[in-house]
Write a sequence for this structure.
């Protein structure tokens, strides 16, 4: 699909159906993520699953941050000598949008070769009937709620972070009518910070989840996310660019807390579920939560930013109660 995007973005005549097909093909990568994440737990003892899954998922989640950090730079010049492809025009300048796709193709080839040579099959076989019995275990559904709160909101807000800055504080916002546009922040400058913080924290907190258990960190995470999202609502209708640091730091704090929960939930599932079910539950919850960017994007567009933030705060509160009563409280 990256080769497809390389050609698709070079023409404004590319059909919407083609874009959907390429997006679907990219989703196969997300599907494989949900497939191989569960297998990791089989190769590590339970006392190390938090660390192993935290490192693996954290590095994977950094992809969004890497893309958002590198893309503006990669689009700024003719890459790899392929200057014979005409650039696209953005205002008075030129951008090479297709660079972003073609840059990562060699790395995916290397990854494919490494996967073919080094990955091991999970030594567990299960038929369809055995696989779907995860849906009879209530922990599958409770942990799906937890992971939608932590990873679903993390990935959704990470995908929308640059656009939120642009629409609320950027040169296209209402502030531009009263203040110099050159003084207003650009979303692309800060977009990579959210996914970067959440991903790094997820990696770092794996060992702490192994030490103290996943449930308490999931509980702290959801409480922290709800609180910081509530604080952010006070900065969603600014009257002065000086309010931007308050918005930025409250959002970055939310991403920090999401990292705690993403590490905590993946520690919980191998501990509270039978080994055969834990893998399937991790895959199912990861697949559902990966709808986060779609859900958050649609919700903000249809409900409005402030309304969606308060809905997210309410959802976090409900999940915090469930997490405490079922998993995190003493005993």
């Amino acid at each position: 699909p990256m080769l497809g995007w390389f050609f698709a973005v070079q023409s404004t005549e590319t059909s919407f159906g083609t874009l959907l097909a390429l997006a679907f093909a990219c989703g196969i990568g997300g599907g494989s993520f949900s497939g191989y994440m569960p297998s990791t737990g089989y190769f590590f003892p339970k006392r190390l699953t938090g660390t192993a899954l935290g490192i693996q998922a954290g590095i994977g989640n950094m992809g969004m941050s890497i893309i958002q950090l590198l893309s503006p730079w990669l689009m700024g010049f003719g890459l790899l000598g392929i200057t014979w492809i005409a650039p696209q025009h953005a205002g008075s300048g030129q951008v090479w949008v297709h660079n972003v796709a073609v840059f990562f193709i060699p790395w995916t080839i290397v990854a494919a070769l490494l996967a073919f040579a080094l990955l091991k099959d999970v030594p567990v076989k299960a038929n369809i009937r055995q696989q779907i019995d995860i849906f009879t275990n209530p922990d599958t559904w409770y942990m799906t709620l937890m992971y939608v709160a932590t990873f679903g909101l993390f990935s959704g807000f990470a995908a929308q972070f640059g656009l939120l800055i642009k629409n609320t504080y950027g040169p296209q916002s209402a502030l531009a009518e009263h203040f110099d546009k050159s003084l207003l922040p650009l979303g692309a400058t800060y977009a990579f910070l959210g996914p970067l913080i959440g991903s790094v924290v997820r990696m770092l907190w794996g060992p702490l989840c192994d030490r103290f258990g996943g449930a308490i960190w999931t509980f702290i995470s959801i409480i922290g996310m709800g609180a910081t999202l509530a604080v952010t609502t006070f900065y969603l209708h600014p009257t002065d660019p000086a309010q931007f640091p308050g918005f930025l730091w409250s959002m970055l704090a939310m991403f920090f807390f999401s990292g705690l929960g993403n590490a905590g939930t993946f520690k919980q599932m191998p501990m509270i579920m039978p080994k055969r079910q834990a893998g399937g539950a991790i895959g199912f919850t990861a697949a559902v939560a990966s709808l986060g960017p779609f859900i958050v994007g649609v919700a903000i567009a249809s409900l409005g930013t402030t309304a969606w933030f308060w809905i997210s705060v309410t959802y976090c509160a409900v999940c915090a109660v469930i997490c405490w009563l079922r998993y995190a409280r003493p005993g």
Observations:
- DSSP finds 13 helices and two strands in the chain.
